[in-house]
Amino acid sequence: MIRILLVVMAATLVGCLEVKNNANDYTEAQFPDDTTEISVSNTASNTNNALAGPGAAAGGGATGMGGEGGMMATPHWGYSGHEGPQHWGDLSPAFEQCKLGMEQSPIDIQASAATPTDLPNIHFNYQPFPLEIVNNGHTIVINVEEGSHIEVGGSVYELIQFHFHALSEHTIDGQHSPMEVHFVHANARGSLAVVGAMMEVGPTEHPDYAAIWAHLPQQKGMPHQVASVMVDATDLMPMSQQSYRYAGSLTTPPCSEGVAWHVLTDPVMLSQAQIDAFTAIYDHNYRPVGDLHGRQVLLDSTP
Questions:
Q1: Phi/psi class of residue 59: alpha, beta or left (left: φ > 0; alpha: ψ in -120 to 50)?
Q2: Alpha-carbon distance 194 to 30, whole Å?
Q3: Do residues 28 and 20 touch, judged by C-beta distance below 8 A?
Q4: Are 19 and 34 in contact (CB under 8 A)?
Q5: Cα angle for residues 204, 206, 210 (degrees, 5° grid)
Q6: Quick one: three-class SS letters along the chain?
Q7: CA–CA separation, 18 vs 61, rounded Å?
Q8: pLDDT digits (tens, 9 = 90+) for 139-155
Q9: Contact 248, 261 (CB under 8 A)
Q10: What is the pTM of this model?
Q11: Residues 178, 184, 188, CA angle at the centre, nearest 5°?
Q12: Which among 258, 80, 244 has a CA at the least distance from the CA of 173?
């Protein structure tokens, strides 16, 4: 059912999802036309499950957008001015987590303060798929067809899409990277896991990103499939799978919490020309880091 909803989202960029958790009561989540990431909102998050790979959610099903009354209007938001991150929580009651949430993302990751822990490894099982790319007005998104997933701690999370931010949203020891990529996953019960990787400038072009970069849409529009370009997300990852992990949120409105974050310790290397090509489209589509509020950041000690 989740995949059906997300296919609809890829085609129309509108949809919704409702899921419930034994410990966490998940409420309606929307996929409006200007939402960057999958959004699932909850009233409380289970930090331990989120850190180690949440899989305890139960139930879940589809509902109509805005209930039986029809389509629900979504406030426009952005990255500057009165629609910028500091005002997201005031744009709509649906966005109140953006200002009230205590487990928000992104964060500054202090490498020396992360707790080394033997955590379940991330097992990547990605399959090639035809490129489907869209400029949604906030970033460039690559929609992924069914068949690619990760497994963490016995839970399987399907890769739904990935997208980019410039500068990076997370910082390491207070330092931004030029870009960050987010690989967004959802399991059959509605729990979310995001794998993030910093993107740094290297000496040469990254050939696998080059195939995608050749089709970067300059303007907001509908998804466009390039059947001649096959993408394997495995090739887009750094070699090391070691990661920082913490319980966080979506980094775009409605800033829903209960997201398991896995921020890889090693960056992806792009050429300066590749960085410049993206930032010519989006050069300031990142949310500033927020407070940890006592959360623990773990470092997988056995990648």
A1: left
A2: 17
A3: no
A4: no
A5: 120
A6: CHHHHHHHHHHHCCCEEECCECCCCEECEECCCCCCCCCCEECCCCHHHHHHCCCCECCCECCCCCHHHCCCCCCCCCCCHHHCHHHHHHHCHHHCHHHHCCCCCCEEECHHHCEEECCCCEEEECCCEEEEEEECCCCEEEECCCCCEEEECCEEEEEEEEEEECCCCCEECCECCCEEEEEEEECCCCCEEEEEEEEEECCCCCHHHHHHHCCCCCCCCCCEEEEEEEECHHHHCCCCCCEEEEEEECCCCCCCEEEEEEEECCCEEECHHHHHHHHCCCCCCCCCCECCCCCCCEEECCC
A7: 6
A8: 999 999 999 999 999 99
A9: yes
A10: 0.81
A11: 170
A12: 244
> The tokens 């097992």 sit on which residue?
123
User: How does the average pLDDT of the chain come out, rounded?
Assistant: 82
- Model confidence at 74, pLDDT cuts 50, 70, 90, reads confident
Question: Tell me, what's the pLDDT at 70?
Answer: 34
Inter-CA distances, 111 with 155, 164, 243, 294, 298, Å: 27, 23, 11, 16, 10
pLDDT at 3: 54
Distance (Å, whole) CA 149 – CA 103:
25
Q: Which residues of 281-303 are buried (b: 16+ CB within 10 A; e: fewer)?
A: bbeebbbebbebeebebbbbeee
Place of tokens 């949430």: 101
Query: Per-residue confidence at 302, pLDDT binned at 50, 70, 90?
Result: confident
Contact partners, residue 128, CB within 8 Å, separation at least 6:
230, 231, 232
φ, ψ at 201 (rounded to 5°): -85, 125
At 288, list the tokens.
Answer: 């500033």
